[in-house]
Amino acid sequence: MVRRTTRFRSSVGVLAAALVFSFGAACGGDDGGSSSKGGSAASKNPITIGVICPRTGPVEVIGTNLCLAAADYVELVNSKGGVDGHEIKVVDIDYAYEVPKGVAAYEEMKRQGAVALLCGGTPIAIALNDRITNDKVPCVTPGFGIAEATDGAKYPYQFPLAASYFSQAAAALDHIASEAKDKKVKVAFLHLDNPSGKEPLPVMERLAKEKGMELKTFAVPLPGLELGAQITDITSRFKADYVVSHLFGRAPSVAIKGLKQAGFPLDHVISFVWGIAEADIDAAGGFAAAEGYKGLQFTGVGQDFPVIKEIQQRYEARKVAVPAGLAKYSVYYDRGVFMAAVMLEGIRRALEAGGEPLTGEKVKVGLESIKDFELGGLVPPLSTSPADHEGGGFTRVVAVKDGKFTPITDWANPQRDVVLAMVAERNKG
Question: Global pTM?
Answer without folding.
Answer: 0.91
